Each structure stands twice: as C-alpha cells, then as structure tokens.
Amino acid sequence: MDDVQGMRVALVLGLASGGLGRHVKAVAEGLAERGARVAVCGPGETERTYGFSGAGVRFAEVDIADRPRPAGDLAAVRKLRGLLRGADIVHAHGVRAGAMAVMARGRLASGGTGLRVEAGPPVLVTLHNEAPSGGMAGAAYAVLERIVARGATGVLGVSPDLEERMRALGARDVGHAIVPAPPLGAAAPGARERLREELGAGDAQVVLTVARLAPQKGLPVLLEAVSRMGPAAPLFLIAGDGPLDGELRERIATADLPVRLLGRRNDVAELLAACDIVAVPSMWEGQPLFVQEALRAGRPLVATATGGVPRLVGDAAVLVPAGDAAALAAALQGILSDPGRAVRLGAAAAQRATALPTDDDAVDQLAARYRGFLPG
Question: Rounded to whole angstroms, how far apart are CA atoms 320 and 302?
C-alpha cells in the first residue's frame, strides 16, 4: 500500500451520474482514510447528488458542464487554476474535466491543440466513456482528447479501446483504470419467490436488464431481439429510467412484446435473485457496474463484446456483437433452452466474480500512480 499521508490531492469531475460519481466518491473517501488531504472540484449538482463534503473531503464548486460552452468553460478553467495551485496531484475524471484540468496548469499554443505546460502539479486523467463522434460535438471532443493526450502526465482508460485511442494521440503514460462496483449484499430470504409473484412472472423464465434508458445502452436492439424470439420469448424486465422511456413503451405496446419497464429500482440484488439470465445489449461500455453485479450474483450473462466488457467477464459470459439483434436473440435462446449450460455459466460467473477488484484495490493503484508522478 503506497503512503499518501499528507498528500494534497485534487479530484476534478463534471456532471456525473451512475458509476463515475460513485467511483470518485469511493476514491475520495479511501484517500482521506489513508491520510491524504482531498479536495473535490465539480458542479454543485454533483455535490448534491453524491455528498462529497460529507465524506471527509473538501468540496469546491466549479461549473464544469456536460457539453462544450466556450465562455463558461474558460471561466471554469480560470477558477480551477486557482484551486489547483496548491495540489500535489490533480486527478480528473472524464475527457472534459481532464482537458480543463490540463488547461488550468498550461496554456494553449498557436493552433489550439498543442499545449505549453507551465509549472504545476502532475495531472492524471481517467477516461470513463467513449467520446461522441461525428458532427460539431465529435470535432469538439476530438480537440479535448488531444489536449488530454498531449498535456496530461498520465491517462487511465476503463477499456482497451480508450487506452489505445490515447496512445495513438501521443499520450506518454497510459494504463488501465480500475472502477469496481460496490457489493450489493445478499438478497433477502424468499426474495426470488416474492418478487416473481409481485411482477406476475409465475413460472416463466425471466431475463433482466438494468440500464439507463439511453441510446448507448442498446435497448432498441434488445426489443428487436425479443421480437425475433417470437411466441417462445421469456419475460423481459428492464429496470432504469431515461430519455428513451416513452419510445420504448410505445414500441413494446405496439408489438405486444413480453417486456416490462420497471423504472428506477433500488432492489437490484432482489431483481438478480428473481431472474434466470441477464442481458446487457449496450452499444458501448467501460466497466459496467451491472455486469459486475450480475457476476457476483452468479447469473448466466449475455453481453455485447464492446469496450471493457470482454476483459471484465473473460470466459464467464456469452458475448455477441453490439447492435446485432439476431445474435443476441440466438444467444439468449441457446441458454434458456439448455438448463445445464445455464448452470455452468452461472457457476463461471460466480467464479469470475471472486477476482473482481475492490475499492481498496482501486485506491492502491491510484496511490502508486500518484507517488510515481512525484519527485523522490
């Protein structure tokens, strides 16, 4: 365990949801428990959601928006420059927060994509998501990626493709990020029977997906797979909320699909106990928390071979190409029709889960990284 006693660490993030915000809070708490002096810089909304200041750290509000906003971004960089001046290490999460942290300790050279770095603390950037591509947004994010690659002291990626992207752009020190899911805890006794009765599942086979209802999660592809399965399709449960809610409900009703949208749920452990198989149809993922939760629950898993998923699951899941509804339907049918295979996959998932990293592992990795950037 690397010593961080007395180290001044500034964590920078933008508007965060789901795994990213939870991960940063866990890192902040872990570093503070080891004696680091931790400050978190980010939007007030992020503080209200995650309560960093109640985790033994200092919070400083910086308006880091979730989309390009030239005047506001410049103001955020200026504010960060003052806040980061006394830090030993700056660790930013996400490409926008990362680019702003880099610019806060340097200034753009002519041409807008080179960086002349002034004296300042080392900047480590963890990339959690694939950047948008195409159009004006894609062009803007491409500039931010180059700023991070050329100006950060080090970069961590949650998936091999993000790591390779940074290397291709000239990043000097690239590594693999560790983003663990928190333990869910065991489902309450009798949860499977109680929840299946509550949901009207009866003796039907149940496929579970937990995801934000957003384009990245591939839910229209899942509905197409359900349609392809025909009358033999099992009951599909989708837990989560998001902008595609109305569109998905309309499609389910129009095609009379055996799919129930449950909305946001806080009983994922019970839902996992109630299901027979887990489906993750995402178009892209880093180290999805739900995949880790499914492995720990010992559930047979079908997921898309995208981003960090293959490295996360190893041989403990059936992987299909992202966006391929036919392959997804065939994989689900193959497991649902073969109870012995389902049992073997569940056992493989539980075994794989024993090797999943913990929050302590993540803090150990970061402490070693931080120490490696400092003199002496």
Answer: 7
Per-residue pLDDT of 36-86, as tens digits, reads: 999 999 999 999 999 998 878 999 999 998 887 878 889 999 999 999 999
Q: Distances in Å between the alpha carbon of 79 and those of 74, 89, 100?
A: 9, 17, 10
pTM of the model as a whole: 0.92
107 confidence band (pLDDT: 50, 70, 90): low
**Would you give the end-to-end CA distance of the chain in angstroms?**
17
In tens, the pLDDT along 252-268 reads 999 999 999 999 999 99
Class for the domain spanning 191-353: alpha beta
| Residue written as token pair 């359900």 | 226
Q: If you count DSSP H runs as helices and E runs as strands, how many of each does the chain have, helices first?
A: 15, 15
Domain definitions of the chain by residue range = 8-180+358-373, 191-353
**Neighbour-count burial for 281-300, b at 16+ CB within 10 Å, e otherwise:** bbbbbbbbbbbbbbbbbbbb
Please report, for residues 47, 68, 85, 271, 369, the alpha-carbon distance to residue 28 in angstroms, rounded to integers and kept in the order given.
Answer: 13, 27, 19, 30, 15
Looking at domain 8-180+358-373, its CATH superfamily turns out to be Glycogen Phosphorylase B; (3.40.50.2000)
Rounded-to-integer distance, Cα 337 and Cα 287, Å: 29
CB atoms within 10 A of CB 125: 29
| Fold match, 8-180+358-373 / 191-353 | yes
Show the tokens assigned to 333: 């049918």
Q: Is the pLDDT of residue 111 over 60?
A: no
